[in-house]
Amino acid sequence: MTENNSELIRFTAAQLADKLAAGEVTAVEVTQAYLDRIAAVDGKVNAFLHVNTEEALAVAAEVDAIRAAGGAAAEELHVLAGVPIAVKDLIVTIGQPTTAGSKILEGWHSPYDATVVERLRAAKMPILGKTNLDEFAMGSSTEHSAYGPTHNPWDLERIPGGSGGGSAAAVAAFEAPLALGTDTGGSIRQPGAVTGTVGVKPTYGGVSRYGAIAMASSLDQIGPVSRTVLDSALLHQVIGGHDPRDSTSLQDPLEDLVAAARTGNVDGMKIGIIKALHGEGYQAGVENRFNESLELLKGAGAEIVEVSCPNFKYALGAYYLIMPSEASSNLAKFDGVRYGLRVLPEEGPLTIERVMGATRAAGFGDEVKRRIILGTYALSAGYYDAYYGSAQKVRTLIQRDFDAAFAKADVLISPTAPTTAFKLGEKLNDPLAMYLNDVATIPANMAGVPGLSLPGGLADEDGLPVGIQLLAPARQDARLYRVGAVLESLLEAQWGGPLLDKAPALTDTAPAVPSPTDSSSADAVASHGGSH
Amino acid sequence: MTDATLSFEEAMEKYDPVLGFEVHVELNTKTKMFSSAPNVFGDEPNTNVNEVDLGMPGVLPVVNRTAIESSIKIGLALNCTIAENCRFARKNYFYPDTPKNFQTSQYDEPIAYDGYLDVELSDGTVFRVEIERAHMEEDAGKLTHMGGATGRIQGADYSLVDYNRSGVPLVEIVTKPIQGAGSRAPELAKAYVAAVREIVKNLGVSDARMERGNVRCDANVSLRPHGRERFGIRSETKNVNSLRAVEHAVRYEIQRHAAVLDSGEPVIQETRHWHEDTRTTTSGRAKSDADDYRYFPEPDLVPIVASRAWVEELRATLPEPPAARRKRLQSDWGYSDLEFRDVVNAGVMDEIEETIAAGATPTVARKWWMGEIVGRAKNADVDPGQLGVAPATIVELNKMVEDGKINNKMATEVLDGVLAGEGTPAEIVQKRGLAVVSDDGPLLEAIDAALAAQPDVADKIRGGKVQAIGAIVGGVMKATRGQADAGRVRELILEKLGVQV
């Protein structure tokens, strides 16, 4: 890796866009720099399940050619043209495998592109590859991937959060400037928090879900992962907006999120602290960083108000009824009949039911099975009203809590996760402890409101990143960027630069290991098999 | 094993049947219920599919607006209330013809509910069938089980699946329990399904071809002793897919239930399969209320809002209801009740209407269709309308007869020529050399010959027995191979013999 390349990867997406436009670097140089970085460090991080070298370089070369030719075509290039991106492997792509982190889809190639992928292609952003995740996005640690866990670049012994640990770790480890994530209960924001990156869950319906393999349809949302608030806004602007293929997609024209991020301002704004989402159960270092952020915002002219959301305490319980219920139905299609893994029963008659059963038994991991069983139970006749029905009522109550809170405050603020990154394996055998990680992020999904997590500093006790979460009313995503940009600049001024400057340099330690494209090999799977 | 049955008469003596129907109507929209793939029958398997129909990972449904409009039209034609807001739900079950392993259907919020349909029986009796609901759903793919004796999935060597039908829009029309039909239950069953078929065809929302599965009927039958309020246990005979079969299946189930009840055994609540060859049903799957489809609202779709303005707009586009149309046509045409019922039962009402529109009188149109074409269709085992006789052909033929160019006998010969594809009536007349001989010269020669051949008859006529003339006319017609104008021949004979009449 050249000196130049190692510098290139540390630029933000916005900076790269400027340099590309000014002709200071080429898209091929930028893309190659990231591919080199992936080759150098992903053996340790395991953020990528597939690296898309050829296509990424071809797209980059196309951008360079257009720019070199000049004229209208060059002028019409999207601002992010040539800026590479990683895509969570829950989002389908033509030309690359899509696994959802599951054995059941190993080797499957989608015949169609997700809408967000089409939009990345239209913007001519080279796709670096597909990132690791908890199987079908079910988890908070990426340990439930069938292809081995992703490691937190801040401490390789720790989890990168989940389910989008691959996307967050890739961005934190400078393997990509941008990534796409999906967030059903916090899968973008919580990994952002524990890896010191920025992650945004847009308003439900703000970004098309077409082509995101569904876990819980009424909660899932695709969103940006980046190192800065502005970069997320730039990416959000690419992927957002109405899609006729998603009936739940909002018709509203997209707000100018980039302008909001560039003109951040909190003067006179009311920022609400949610009593239920800090204090007891939150790590002291997390609380400290959270309180510091409040002071900074106050200093910038914001008024901090306290809001009460009495029903948030039911959110986690209701979430763990609605999410598995929808997931149990969404995952029924994985049956070995039309695509993906097909396993024949070892003995006994070869009936369709038995082939489906054997396929699902072999293809799904424990956490997926746990949620399918939970959901199947919750939807069963005689239990539906008590479980799914009650959970939907809780959902309404949470929406009302938000309505009341947003009557008093323009945005809400909380820690993103109650703790910093825990050790790999630490909570693998305790699903309930694992589920508690999402206690602060779940309410936004239950109500469909947007949320953003940005780095809030390092916890005193372990020196690991802490995330600050901002929440805004539905369709007011711009507010997140306006406030987030201010808080980010105040914090970075305090730190003397981006938080990620404090992260360990991964290349200093052990020698590089084989290409991450091999990470789906039998070894990687075996190392994970039977661990829980 | 064949089930025991009572005679229908005995069953009716002892029991009172209660019916219920679920009729599935495939809509003829251009594209599918939730995807942009074409909705076309009969294409190569698995060609009219896209990622949505195949249940690929990541896909989402989008509701077909035309399908909603068609459903609302059906609801209105069935005198239903149209829901202002309704939702789709997921019906979860694993089966390989259902790519997502759930069917997107409506559950507790149908688009149309609380309607009725007045069904006319063959003798003109009108029976009101209450409609509980008409809801939207998607069709499943088509499985073909290869090998094995039964043609069912159990015992098959392997099964082929065609997803072309997967996602085709369906409207399921569910009746309330139909009571009081008594011994006319089988007839009512047939008439009800026929009436539904007629309505959806008339609306133009379905091709309504039962042989293609556009209209499919599940028939529920239960019996109770006369005078008892409470319903008996029902069976549901699935996929009875012709009008005749609906009648036979209901009749058979009544006889079977009666035998079961007589034996003191309980009727089992189950689905039954209909066998056209033996006209019997056999036991399918035991069906209980414990069947758990884990319905829940489809989270990938937003509720359907049918504004009152939209509903009224659609109501204004509805064609005249079939029953009202029949009443109007009968009165316009001046047919007797019997004549009109014959026309309806022969299935040529539309054809007669078109023929009249093309210029024929109602009497002429009926004479041709009922007198000539229906019989030929029966011989060819097709619907009269499928023979390919254009209304204009009938008008042309009739005009030739009226103008005296050909006689009735020739006209039927020309019709056969038209059916054989020989060309237009005028072409056939020319090609076959058919024309009424109106030149007196050849006729007089033939008359002389005929009179010479039958001198005794000639004498009779001269003696005033004019009715004997038939034999001479017949001789002339024979000699001219039927091409003479019989009226003219008669005149010339009388002239020749100097007989005044």
Short structural summary:
Chain A is an alpha/beta fold. Chain A has 2 domains: 3-311 and 397-502, Amidase signature (AS) domain (Amidase signature (AS) enzymes, Alpha-Beta Complex); 312-389, no CATH class.
What does this protein structure show overall?
The complex is a heterodimer of chains A (about 525) and B (about 500). Chain A is of the alpha/beta class and about 525 residues long. Chain A folds into two domains: about 5-310 and about 395-500, Amidase signature (AS) enzymes; about 310-390, no CATH class. Helix content of chain A is about 40%, strand content about 10%. Chain A contains 19 helices and eleven strands. Chain A has an eleven-stranded mixed sheet with strand order 1-3-2-4-6-5-10-11-9-7-8, with helices on both faces. Chain B has three domains: about 10-40 and about 65-95 and about 100-140 and about 165-315, no CATH class; about 320-430, no CATH class; about 440-495, Orthogonal Bundle (Arc Repressor Mutant, subunit A). Chain B contains 16 helices and 16 strands. In chain B, strands 2-6-7-10-1-11-12-13-14 form a nine-stranded mixed sheet. In chain B, strands 5-4-15 form a three-stranded antiparallel sheet, with no helix packed on it. Chain B has a two-stranded antiparallel ribbon with strand order 3-16. The mean pLDDT of chain B is about 90. The interface of A and B includes residues 91 and 379 of A.
**Count of β-strands of chain A:** 11
Instruction: Characterize the largest beta sheet of chain B: strand count, sense, and whether it forms a barrel.
Output: 9 strands, mixed
Radius of gyration of chain B: 30 Å
* Class by SSE composition of chain A: alpha/beta
Helix share of residues of chain B?
Answer: 25-40%
Residue-averaged pLDDT of chain A, rounded? Answer: 93
How many discrete structural domains of chain A?
Answer: 2
SSE blueprint and pairings:
The complex is a heterodimer of chains A (532) and B (501).
Chain A: H1 3-8, H2 13-22, H3 27-45, E1 48-51, H4 53-69, H5 71-75, E2 85-88, H6 115-122, E3 127-131, H7 165-172, E4 178-182, H8 189-195, E5 198-201, E6 222-226, H9 229-239, H10 257-262, E7 270-274, H11 284-299, E8 303-307, H12 315-330, H13 352-363, H14 366-379, H15 385-408, E9 411-415, H16 431-435, H17 442-447, E10 451-458, E11 465-471, H18 477-495, H19 522-528
Parallel strand pairs in A: 2-3, 2-4, 7-8, 7-9
Antiparallel strand pairs in A: 1-3, 4-6, 5-6, 5-10, 9-11, 10-11
Chain B: H1 8-14, E1 15-26, H2 65-77, E2 81-82, E3 85-86, E4 89-92, E5 102-105, E6 112-120, E7 126-138, E8 142-146, E9 158-162, E10 169-175, H3 185-203, E11 215-225, E12 235-240, H4 243-262, E13 270-275, E14 280-286, E15 296-297, E16 304-305, H5 308-316, H6 322-333, H7 337-346, H8 349-357, H9 362-380, H10 391-402, H11 408-419, H12 425-431, H13 440-453, H14 455-462, H15 469-479, H16 486-497
Parallel strand pairs in B: 12-13
Antiparallel strand pairs in B: 1-10, 1-11, 2-6, 3-16, 4-5, 4-15, 6-7, 7-10, 8-9, 11-12, 13-14
